[in-house]
Amino acid sequence: MHDLDHIVKDIAAEMAERPDRGTVATYIPELANVDAGQFGIAIVDNDGRVFTGGDADTPFSIQSISKVFTLTLALGMAGDRLWRRVGREPSGSPFNSVVQLEFEKGIPRNPFINAGAIAVTDLILSGHQPREALGEILRFVRFLADDPSIAIDEKVAASEQRTGFRNAALANYMKSFGVIENPVDLALGVYFHQCAIAMSCRQLATAARFLAHNGRNPKTGLSVVNAERARRINAIMLTCGHYDGSGEFAYRVGLPGKSGVGGGILAIAPGRASIAVWSPGLDQNGNSHLGRIALEALTKRLGWSIFGA
Ligand code: DON
What we know:
Elements: H1 3-17, E1 23-24, E2 40-45, E3 50-54, E4 60-61, H2 66-78, H3 99-103, H4 114-125, H5 130-145, E5 151-152, H6 154-163, H7 165-176, H8 184-195, E6 197-199, H9 201-207, H10 209-212, H11 227-240, H12 246-252, E7 257-259, E8 264-269, E9 273-278, E10 281-282, H13 289-302
Antiparallel strand pairs: 1-10, 2-3, 2-9, 4-6, 5-6, 7-8, 8-9
Helix pairs in contact: 1-13, 2-4, 4-7, 4-8, 5-8, 5-9, 6-8, 7-8
The structure holds 6-diazenyl-5-OXO-L-norleucine.
The site of 6-diazenyl-5-OXO-L-norleucine has 13 residues, from loops.
């Protein structure tokens, strides 16, 4: 057995035993039905090999991890113009915080907090019907993962659409500053649906492999983004990917990462591999409890932290 195969199986077994599993998100009612007993891990290395453990093939709601894909897509459409509408500094605030927006005149701190992600999605929507914009996002993710079966969980999207009052407040507030171009309900509709894309750890790690490989798909050699853009997306993941838990994630795991309230975490080991973990129970910052612990164990065993062994 390859070393990595051994390690992911080991970590999955360790995680299955742990009694502390965090708390499943309930503010999106549909997510409250997910069984907290699950754990999955997948690694796709730069030679294209895939290593999996636990529930690596179970699809889950990727939620905020979708923001990595929409940021990549929007940068492809707008280039650096995107940064006129959204900053790239860590917020030190929760993912759904309202307070900073007033001080900063409707310009969200970064593309990974909810306000910033809604602004990015609004940019993708401009000039399109919501259905087209969503189709564009879904096609991009399917293309990256090389898997046409990836789909949106309509129940999760509808559940968030019914209860997403906080996001509606953020979007309306940004709209008052002209930061949102399209009708607020349309921008939110696309955003809720992108968050409701369901993917497994295997699909997610595969989709993000370009970030570990200077912007290229390691299998085909084809470029998704240039090396500079891949490096910069990784930088934003490191500094902003876990909201007010980003410092702790860098301290413990030492890799660029993006979490979602569905319990997934995507982590990138630049030059080595793309990693996805999933366990639905969250910590107090809304990031997967066991997902973080598993990634910490992994990077420690492999010496993969970008900060040194
Ligand atoms: O907008 C929301 O609240 C959710 N659709 C996504 C939030 C999320 O995943 C935060 N990440 N940990």
